[in-house]
Amino acid sequence: MAGSASQSLSDYEIYEEIGRGRHSTVYRGRKHFTLDFVAVKSIDREHSQRIKYQVSILKQMSHENIMKFFTWYQTPNNIWVCMEYCVGGNLANLLKQDRQLPEPCLRLFAKDIACGLQYVHSKQIVYCDLKPSNILLTEFAVLKLCDFGLARNLKDGPPDENVPRSKRGTPHYMSPEQFNSKAVFSVASDIWSFGCLLYEMACGQVPFPQWPMRELVKEIRNSAPPQMPSHVSPEFVDLVTRCLQKSVSKRITWPEICSHPFWESPLPLLIEHKRESLAPLALSDVSSIHNTPTQAGSAGKDRDEERTNAELNSTSNSLDSDQEHSNPKTEDDEDDDVDTEDDELLQTLRPSSTSNGSVVIGGDAEQRPAVAAPGTNRRQTISVLPLAEKPLTVGDLMEHECDVMVRPLVGNTRIEKMPSMVFVATTLPFAALDIESILSLQHTDLERFLKDVYRALDRKGTNSAERLNVLKYFIPLCTNTGFANCVINSGIMSMLIQQAGNEPQPELKMYFIHAMGTLIRYASYIGAHLASASIFEVLANLSRSPNAKIRRHAVATLGELLFYVATQEPNAQVNAPGAPSSDVAPRRDENNNWAIPACAIGTVIRGLRAGEDNVVRHYAAKTIENVAAQSPGSAIEWFATPEIVLALVQIFQSTTHKALRVTSAAALSQLLRRSSTTLFKRVLPRFGWLFLIGGLEIDSAKCQQAFFNMLLSAIANEIAPLDFDPIILIEYSIHIIENATSLIRAKALLTLALIFTKHVDHFAYLRFAFSHKLNNALERTAKDKDDYVQKAAAFLVQSVTAAVQSLIEAVATACVSSDISSALTPKQIVAFPVILSCATSPHLKHAAITAQSVQWLSRLITNRSAPGKATSPISISDVLCIVDALASDTDLLTSGAIPGRIVQHLLPSLISLIRPKIGVSNPELSSEENFSDGTRFFCIKLITDILSTLLPSLYDRGHLLNQMRSSTTSALHSLMMKEILPLIPGILNEKDPIPQYGIRLLSVMVDANLDLVSSLESIGILPLFIDLLSDREQVTLGNVKIVSAIVRSGHVDLSWLYGLDLVPKLNSVLSYSFGRSADLLSDPVLDIILHLLQHEPRNESIEALLDNAEFLLSLMLSNDAILCEKATTCVQYLVQRYPEAHFILWSSTMALSSLGNALANPRSTPGAIASILQTVSCLAISGDTRVAASLRSHRASDLHRSLRSVQDRPDLDRDVARMARDLLESIK
Question: Spans of biased composition, class Basic and acidic residues (predicted)?
Fold first, then answer.
């Protein structure tokens, strides 16, 4: 347990929920014995490391613009963090309402944010997620930064895996450098976010509102924000503009911010401009490379950004297919987890020197972005219809954008380590220009440079070592799309193909192939002339080389080319095996004409064979995965054969290499889901359902994603009969929902929905699912704010609803029958608890409880209580538990036709279960049918709960509302008068606890309908409730409420009540409630006292209240404002009507202190303050010299102080404040 040993969570009183996040819930709380409220945040225990990191940062903070942290605790399932309670909500909600703020408000808010953010930076901490929803407002409109979940402590060094990583934030507030390779958050990036926030407060929207992510990144990098409205000053515009400088070196710093003229007076400076000491751990402060202004170059950049940003978008929505992080792997890292997600974004090329004088351009290949493979014809995410417009179908939700996300082959360090690109610049036969310089060359100079490269690589003019050095310089340049587009469609590419095919030196041959692959990967336009250059045939021949590294690079390059053709040319044709490429007339259009020779496809297929090098097999499987995932045309048919499917299954089952296993599963999933269902139907019997289910047990998110996708496709398309027992799949899916990432959780939800929809025994499996915590899983899902998860959960709820409603229809039909047992099938009887499980679930309650349900529930109850009826096979306890779920839901009880059905059918049936032992015997019932006291007690409770909701909506202050006079209301009134009230005397004579619930039931009825008091009087049980007031063991809130109704009804003579010693008994209750801090009893007692004082100007019996004056004084200090006001009004009446009370009440120090403290109590309402002031005024003019002396003595110092403070309360009108001032003057 965190915190001091003497403290625990029980030190806090937890109230209502005030907020909810994906993994947390926030409650309003109060520490015992204080008046200070706090925000208590409950977080799932699984996030303990992250919370501890956040707490370690919060402990360092102490600033008026930072939310205060008090303490934290751990319980078995949750972590509880106690923080400052800000009643004003967050800035995001305020901006939704007001949109554009006036400049005075802008300046006030901006100062608070700037001061808080500068303080954070002064602690060597980067905030990392500055946005409106992370800024709270106090009741005095002071802004406070909160939620340091993504903050980074620069003094701690590089973060470990439990600390939030870079690229985790809100994209619309992220700076340009954060979208570069290896960038992390920095002080400068926080200042950019500050500028975005200022702009939003002034303009009503963020400076870059574009979406999707690809468009947003472009705008942030390259565009200026829209012009700000005219109502803001030039100084404000200048501040925002300098915050939003693209270049980090030009962005405004803290000394400049603090001295900016917008503030009118300088802000205090906490930190000097020390860019080095506050620099990020791995900031890549490099601007984006601008391609040549050609259509092809622009398209290439867009293509790479789109692939990368799809992954960033996935990360920001917590839909990663891979949540485990590690370093890049080689083919030998079989024991390491290869299911990682790179944080690298678009690569920026910048030369750097090595220790030996060599130069590296673009870094190692391991540093390149892991992005989806090229293609402008990309498969789009399925648009999902909102549930409110149309019921969801599995087709709407089967595919998520992450399901079509792929990674490239060339340069993929998860498959193999890339060759070194370190070159010696001094030995190059031309100047070693960097990529920026090359792209800025004039056309003639660029041609000359490319000719130099061509000659240097030409076999005739250079030796092997020199050409290898040129290739190591040349290949990193090819990672720029503009350069790649220029080279790949020139003679250099043809030369590379020729050299790769003819070069005898293995290492040099491998680099030539790698250069070809790099160009294909990064180019956005590749002319079909490459086919005539025999590139397919050359790569196919190279894939047969005895040198494993040559085979690897050849298959990777071929895979990239096939992927490009598949995504660019939907109808590209494949030659028949053995036919020359010229024999096929390819489809032609104005851009491309491709014909894929059979040897190219055969090379990929051959790469899957057992005995082949594992890296080659990996490249072959990855090619199939990429083509199948994103081909918009018929290219998937290249590989859609049973032999390839079974080869992928064999790889998955036999390999010990994790990366290869993951890729084979992904390729298998893409093939089976995207090809015709005929293929799936042919191969599923070969490996069976259990193979698909078993794949879910692999400890890899990407593997689980692949196998869930195959299962969903097979079940939805009815590939084969569901001839397996789904229990294992259901159990595992529920476990996944509780523990997996959002994407996998959504897939598990969809799988459950399909099982409950498609399986013939879905009732049995629904019951199994509920018994294995399906409701808990749904509750866990409700905390996940991801849109895809919410839609999947909605589809599951929709599927369960359909199944349950069919069961309800069957039960309803059976209830009409004279013999329910024969009308229901055994499966339906066994499945009845499913309705109960749905009724107790907040997510499924609407499916189980309808107006129709109320009617057949009533029939089931009546069937059990009526003589001569056959025994129902459905448990009466299950039926009553469903009614209990209805009774606990106010919205359901009062919606639609349900109230009428309750009054007409349900309440009479419940009353029938109370009767057997209460004077209405039923000799025909067997001993089993004579319901236990527990059942009858439960029925009384249910009636009480139902009436406590229905009656307040029909009555006001004990009298029926005119607009509520209807047949339902008349029926309810008749039911209470004729059916329930006659049972009360018998209920009160039962053994405990039935009488207690009978009293509570009666209190609910008479408190709402005071006319029932006359019926109680005719029954002759009124004295019983007065007598119970004197029995401290028996007195209850219900009993006191009944007496309150008796007093207020007007049907009973008050003198008769005085004769029953009502006032002394009220004193007894008041004394008891004060001693036990039972404010619930005090409230109705004060109602009775107030009524007596208001309707009896002076009565000797009421004078007995003076005996408990100290209790009334203490209640004036209650935290409950209503209780405080009632007690104050009681004291006011006593002082005004009983002069002898003056000295009794106010001669003691306790009395005077209570009066002063009540005035100072912030919970005291204006009405209570006015009553206290009137009471003091009455004392001041009473003429009692003893009272006057007390009011002027030192014992009244608290009262004097409070009278002065009351004058400054803003919620009091002028007359009350003037009364306080006059009283203070008169009693001095």
Answer: 300-309
What is the per-residue pLDDT across 2-27, written as a single tens digit (0 to 9) for each?
443 335 667 787 877 787 777 788 88
Find the largest Cα–Cα distance for the chain.
127
Please check whether residue 225 lies inside any domain of the structure.
yes
How distant, in Å, are the alpha carbons of 153, 425, 474, 531 from that of 356?
35, 11, 20, 42
Q: Is residue 648 part of a domain?
A: no
Give the tens place of pLDDT for each residue, 616-644.
Answer: 999 999 999 999 998 877 888 899 999 99
Known binder of ligand: residue 41? yes
CA-nearest of 1120, 1115, 1188, 1186 to 1157 is 1115
Determine the structural domain holding residue 56 and report its residue range.
Answer: 9-84
472 contacts 420 by C-beta, under 8 angstroms: yes
Kindly report, residue by residue over 122-178, the tens digit of the pLDDT.
988 998 889 998 999 987 788 999 888 888 887 665 444 444 444 456 889 999 888
Structure tokens that stand for 1108 in this block: 């408990």
Residue 511 pLDDT > 90:
yes
Residues 159, 51 within the same domain: no
Q: Which tens digit of pLDDT belongs to each residue from 266-304?
A: 898 887 544 333 333 332 222 222 333 333 333 333 334
pTM of model > 0.85: no
Q: What pLDDT was estimated at residue 885? A: 86
**Which of 64, 84, 104 finishes a domain?**
84
Tell whether 508 and 429 lie within a shared domain: yes
Number of domains comprising the chain? 4
Sequence letter at residue 890: T
The residue from 236, 259, 282 where one domain ends is 259
Tell me how crowded residue 207 is: count the other CB atoms within 10 A of its CB: 24
Residue-wise DSSP of 265-333: SPPPP-S---TTTT--TT----PPPPPPS-HHHHHHHHHHHHHHHHHHHHHHTT--S---------TT-
Query: Which strands make up the sheet holding 359-360, listed edge to edge?
Result: 352-353, 359-360, 422-423
Helix (H/G/I), strand (E/B), else coil: 414: coil
Same domain, yes or no, for 225 and 80?
A: no
Upstream peptide bond of 1162 is cis (omega within 30 degrees of 0): no
- Residues labelled catalytic: 129
